[in-house]
What does this fold into?
Amino acid sequence: MLDHSYIGKKLPLIRFQVDASKIRELATALGDDNPIFHDKAAAQAAGYLDLVAPLTFPTLFRFWGGTPVGSEIRALLGEMGADLLRVLHGEEEHEYHSLMHPGDDITGELEIVDIERKEGRSGVMDFVKTQATYRNQRDEIVVIARATMVVRW
It folds into this structure.
């Protein structure tokens, strides 16, 4: 069983500079050839300031190089009692307040908001729910990201 005293724990601040090349790379990896992700002129013709980050872009904040948060989450799950080889990505959702463009400097803080225990056909599982509120360089909320990690026992 995971240590529930970690509910409310916040990880160090996440910081990510949105870069046009990362927007293009993610869109290409997703197989999305929409020109608003690849061509600044096309994005501007569509009414945007610049390239638009794909909606799953916030996932990069926790896993891209230069951000230690991915390893911190794994270390924290280990401290809580999880066998890291039995941790699965459960679900993820993003609540958008505005779009992200190249040059945006995004900061956010990840918090463990809940731990639920459920029993399924394959046994007992703990569901670790996290939330991060990401703000841009103007301190405006850009997106709230919620994710669930599943720890199988």
About this structure: The beta strands are 14-17, 87-96, 105-120, 123-135, 141-152. The chain has a mean pLDDT of 92.
